[in-house]
User: What shape does this take?
Amino acid sequence: MKKILITMLLILISNFAFSQELIIVVAPFEVREGSGFSKDDVEAIEYLFISELSKNNTIKVLDQSNAMFKEITKRMEFELSDWSNPNKVAEFGKALNANAVVLGRIMKLFDEIIIAARINDLSTEIKAANDMVIKNVSEVRGKIPAFTKEIVNRLPKSKNELDAQNKIREEKEREALAENRKKTFDNYKKNANRNYWDYMNGYFLWGDDGLVGVGGMMLAGGIHWSPIPFISIGAETAFCGWFDGNYYGTGSFVTGLVFPLKIKDEPRVLVFCDGILDIGKFGSYTGLFANVLTPSADVGLSFRWDLGFDIKYKRTFLDGYVINGINVVLLWDF
Assistant: This one.
């Protein structure tokens, strides 16, 4: 507990003293297999790089030897492998009150040794980067001052400048996200329609006391149209059949809602629901509003493949009786 309080006190002092400085955390350099560098070589390169970086009076450098670095590494159980995890690096950097992180890499390409470094802010955006090519370790000392200076020259000159850059970047990201969402929704709206003819439907009807009718009609169907996205209106021939020797068949006026089931890509399946006014003959029953007039409702799925079809459940409300139906209808887009 005492160590944590001391660490927090050091952080507060740093905040006050270096409020305008860029506070940069230097991660251990990653060494790729086959580079030919020993552990001592790598430590020497890191030391020279940090020494050059620290010469700039607008930068405060925190490396592995820093007391806060050690304490917070221990407290957060931050390990070497965690440097490849952007979320953990950001969390670690914030705990150190840092503005950016240096990630270095030593690798070999054919007969060349490449030393690369980049400085990311805590959102992982690269603020500055550079690389140098050497033939052997002895060249490092002569080349690293210019290598480091070029990186520093590409950095923001103060914390305020970095904050201003990040604010502009975040605003652009928000604008891009809003524009992408608008495009996605516009495409979604474009597909939220039922502009097609129905033809060649099959039906299965039942009531509370059993089967009402089963069959199909080659020419019966309807038309649906969406004057605006998500809304459809239309007219159709409803379920037809015989019940107790009486003919059952209606024409219907339909209005309802339609929603694609996919947001980004072109939807192949839509869900719809309708309020319906049926006019016609209802077997031995009468309509709820009049002998030939009754309300209905349906809900279903519209499959927009090469051969489109609807599958829907319809419920018809009669005077003292309810008829349920399952209907399959082929579609023809217009």
Observations:
- Confidence is low (pLDDT under 50) at residues 8-18.
- The chain has six helices and 15 strands.
